[in-house]
Amino acid sequence: MKNFKEEIARVRGFVFDVDGVFTDGGIVVTPDGDFMRKYNAKDGYAVQYAIRCGYKVAIITAGRGRCLDVRFEMLGVTHLFTNCHNKAEALKEFLADTQLDPAEVIFMGDDIPDMEAMQMTGLPVCPADAVPDIIEISCYVSQYKGGEGCVRDVVEQVLRARGDWMQKANGLAFIPSR
């Protein structure tokens, strides 16, 4: 098993699932068929900050809906794979597009559909409330649950390890990319 604290200094990219990672897994279906989710603002800030610092970020999720698209577009995520049922293929596309080595990438997932893609990266990680099979393959389990700061936890640790945390924070508030 890899040592997360030693390996994070190599990370240049992040991949995240959405439901159960950025959210607590709850979904509200609107009358028009869209899906509403509650996101943690600190998770969003960390992602936006990582992008500002030059890290590559992808969202790979089976989830879908205009609300989901809008959330991640506002954060500046340009590699957005929604309604995705082959996460391994989406990950390969992200790696090819960004020219990242899989060893330089963290994948945070929480359930069985994330497993194959997580195992293709250098650092598979998960929230505290991930399913047991995902916890078993993860080199780091956040102390935070999905939707409660697990994304911020991982992003902040990586940026601190690489000396990037608080280096470009001046003037950065939540700013939609539109």
How would you explain this protein's 3D organization?
The chain is of the alpha/beta class and 178 residues long. The chain has a single domain (12-101, 112-161), classed as Rossmann fold (3-Layer(aba) Sandwich), CATH 3.40.50.1000. 34% of the residues lie in helices and 15% in strands. It contains 7 helices and 8 strands, in the order αβββαβαβαβαβαβα. The strands form 2 sheets. Strands 5-4-1-6-7-8 form a 6-stranded parallel beta sheet, sandwiched between helices. It has a two-stranded antiparallel sheet with strand order 2-3. α2 runs parallel beside α7 (150-161). The protein starts with a helix and ends in a 17-residue tail after the last helix.
Secondary-structure blueprint of this entry?
Blueprint: H1 4-7, E1 13-16, E2 28-29, E3 35-36, H2 41-52, E4 56-60, H3 66-75, E5 79-81, H4 87-98, E6 105-108, H5 115-119, E7 123-126, H6 132-137, E8 140-141, H7 150-161
Parallel strand pairs: 1-4, 1-6, 4-5, 6-7, 7-8
Antiparallel strand pairs: 2-3
Helix pairs in contact: 2-7
